[in-house]
Amino acid sequence: MLLLAIVLITPPIFERFKLPGLIGLLLAGVLFGSSGLGWLNADADIMKLFAEIGKIYLMFVAGLEIDMALFQKTRNRSLGFGMLTFAVPMLGGIAVGLLFNFGWLAAVLIGSLLASHTLLAYPIVQRFGIVNNEAVTVTVGATIFTDIGSLLVLAICLGINQGDFSALKLATLLGSLTLYTIAVLVGLKQLGRLFFSKTGKDEGNQFLFVMLSVFLCALGAQLIGVESIIGAFLAGLAINSVIGDGPVKEKTEFLGSVLFIPMFFVAMGLLLDLEAFGDILRSIELPLVIVGMLLLTKGLASLGARMLYGYTWPETWTMWSLSIPQVAATLAAALVGYEAEIINSQVFNSVILLMLVTAILGPLVTTRAGKHLIAVDALAENEGLDWLPAPSDIPESFTVVVPVYNPNTEQWLIELAASVARHENGRVIPLAIALAQPQMDSPQLARAMAHSRQRLEAAQAISATLEAEIDPRLRIDYNVAQGISHLSREENANLILLGMGQRSRLNTRLFSNIQDSILWAAHCPVVVARLLDSPTTFKTILLPIENPSPANLRTLRFAQVLANTYQAKITLLHVHGSRASELQRSRLAKQLELLVDRFPAADIDIDIRLVAGDNVVSTIVKTAAEYDVVMLRLQRRRVGNGLTVGSQTTSLVDQLTGSVILVGEPHPLRSDRPARSNRTAFKLNSKLLASS
Q1: Crossing angle for the helix pair 328-339 and 134-161, nearest 10 degrees?
Q2: Distance CA 376, CA 252 (A)
Q3: Residue 176 in contact with residue 159, Cβ under 8 Å?
C-alpha cells in the first residue's frame, strides 16, 4: 500500500515544482527507508522482487524506445560516434578510479558507467521538430553501441569478481554473448512476427508473449553468465520492430511506467546511505571529479564527431547534451555493481549525484542548443504544406470530419469546419457515434441512435446557410475514438476537428481519453477547438511561436486559411527573455520573416511581434486579451503512459479566457531522406543566417 501511495502521489508533487518525478521517488525511498522513517526495508522479499523486475523492465523499455529505422539511415556514423562517446568516457572513468586508489576492477566498472547514456532529452528535440537532423539521428543510433558496450564491460567485471576468471573463460563469455545476441535479435524478431501474424488482434496473448520474451531473454542472459539486464535490453531491440507503435507497445510501456519502473527508483532510494552521502559532501572531490570527467569526455567525443563529420556548433552541442544524461543503463549497472560489492557506497552515491546533475543539465542544454539548431535548419526546404494545400494545389476531395455530440458546441464547430472545407473546395462529414451494445435491439442503443440522429439533423440545419457540402454519417461502434479514427481513414479525411470540453481542476491532462486516443491514432492532422464565439467574428488571430522552425508552417498555414476566409489579421508572437540583446532580437525577427516568406501568396496581413518576458505563459495570456482567438501548435507524441502536450501548453490553455484552437501535427513519419554526405551547403546556409 505504501509503495503504491508513493508512486501515485510523489511524482506529481515534484513535477509541479518543475523537478523530475524520478527525483521525488528517490527521495521518497530515502525518507521511508533505513536512513529515514524505516517503514520500508531494502532487504524485504517484496522490495527485492519489485527492484529486480523494475531493473529488467527499465532496460527493456530503453531498448524498445530506440528507433531502428533512424539507426539504419546513419549506421556507419552512429558506429563512429558510438565508439568515441564510449571509449573516451571509459578511459576517463578508469583514470578517476585509479586516481582515487580503487582497484582495476572497480575503476573499469566506473568507466563503463560513464560510457553509456540515456536519451532523456529526446522529447525536446521531438518538440522542436529536429528529430531528422543527422546529428540527432547519429546520437540516437550511438545509444545502441554505448549501452551494449557498457553492459558487456559490466558482464566481464562480474565474471572476474566471481573469481577464477581466465582468458579462456573470457573468450567463452564473449563468444556466448555474441551468439546469444544474434539469437535474440534475429530469432526472437522472426518468432515475434510469426506469433503476431497468427494471433491477429488478440492483444492479450500478444502482450503476454512480449512479457514472456523479456523475462526469457533475461533468464537466458543469466544462464550464459552475464547480467539479466543485458538480455532485457536485447529483447527490447528485437521486439522493437515487431510491435511497432500499436496498442501492445502502449500496454507494455504502461505497465512499466506506472508500476515497476517507479518502484525500481524507490528501491534505489532505499539503498542510498545518507551517512555515506554526508561523507561525500564533506569530501566532495570524488563526486565532483566523476561529474566533471563525464562532462569533459562526452564533450571531447562530440568534438571528435564534429571534426570527423563536419557538424556545426549547434549540432555538436546538441550531441553533447543528448549524450550526457546518465539514468537507465547507468543506474541499473551501478546497482548491479554495488550489490556485487565491486563498487562501494561512496561510488554508488556519487553515481546518484551524477544522475541528478546530468538529468537536469542535459535537457537544459538541449533546449538552448536545439533553438540554435532550428535557426540553422530553418532554411531547409524539407517541410511541406500538403495536408492543407494552397488553392492552386487542391486535391480532388478535401474532407473534414467533425464528430458531433454536444449541442452547445456543435454549431461553431460546424462553422469552423465549413470555412476550411469551402476554402479547399471540399466537404464536411458530421459524424455521430452510437455506442454499440451486445444486442442490437437494446434500449440503450436505440436511445444512442436517436440522440445521434438529432445531432446530425441539427448539423444539416446549421450547414444549410454555410454553402458547404455536407455528408452526415451515423456509425455504431464499441469505442468512440476508434469509430472516429476508422471512418476518417476510410474516407481518407484530410482533417479531424474536435471540440474541447471543460476540464475539472483535479484533472492535470489537457484532453479527455477520447481526444487523447484520436490525437494518437488518427492518420491525419487533428484540430481541437475551444470556441467561445462564432468563428465568423474572428478578425484578429494570435499565433505564439516558441521557435522559428519550419515545423510551425502547418499551423501558420491553418491560420492563413482562417484569416483568408474571415478577412482577419494574423500576429506572430515570440516571447524572448528580458536580457536578449538587440542583435538576438533582430535575428529572431529575420528568422520569422523567412518563415512568413514561405507561405503561399494570399491577400492577408501578417505581423511579427517580439515581446520581452521571463514568464512565457503569463506574457502570452496578457497579450492574448487583445485578440479574438489564440492558435497553438500541438505536437503529438507519447511519453510513458500517455500523450504528452507539455506543462506550458496545458497551463496556457487553462489561463486563456478567449477562444483557443490547437492545431495537431500530423503523425510523425519516419523520414526517408538519406544521411547528408555533403556538409558544405549546410555550413553555407549557417553562415548566411549568421551574417543576416
Answers
A1: 10
A2: 38
A3: no
Query: Residue 633 carries which DSSP code?
Result: E
Contact 379, 689 (CB under 8 A): yes
Question: Can you spell out the DSSP letters for 544-566?
Answer: E-SS--GGGHHHHHHHHHHHHHH
Give the DSSP per-residue string, 423-480.
HTT-EEEEEEEEEP-SSTT-HHHHHHHHHHHHHHHHHHHHHTTTT-EE--EEEEES-H
Q: How far apart (Å, rounded) are the C-alpha atoms in residues 229 and 55?
A: 7
Average pLDDT score over the chain: 76
Pairing of strands 473-477, 526-530: unpaired
Worst-scoring range by mean pLDDT, 69-73, 295-299, 352-356, 392-396? 392-396
Residue 363 has pLDDT above 50, yes or no: yes
Scanning the structure block, which residue is given the C-alpha cell 514472456?
212
Q: Rounded to an integer, what distance in angstroms lies between the CA atom of residue 178 and that of residue 352? A: 31
At a CB cut-off of 8 Å and minimum separation 6, what does 643 contact?
511, 516, 519, 520, 636, 637
What pLDDT shows up at residue 272? 65
Question: Strand, helix or coil at 608?
Answer: strand
| Residue carrying C-alpha cell 542583435 | 583
Query: How does pLDDT run across 582-629, given as a tens digit for each residue?
Result: 777 787 788 777 777 766 666 677 888 888 887 888 888 888 888 888
Cα 54 from Cα 390, distance rounded (Å)? 51
Contact assessment for residue 293 and residue 93, using Cβ atoms and an 8 Å cutoff:
yes
* Sign for the pseudo-dihedral over CA of 188, 192, 193, 194: positive
Average pLDDT over residues 679-690: 34
Q: Model confidence over 434-470: pLDDT tens digits?
A: 888 888 888 888 888 888 888 888 888 887 777 778 8
- Report the DSSP pairing between strands 399-403 and 473-477: unpaired
Q: Would you list the DSSP string of 91-118?
A: HHHHHHHHHTT--HHHHHHHHHHHH---
Q: What is the pLDDT of residues 21-56, one digit of tens each?
A: 667 777 888 788 777 788 888 778 888 888 788 878
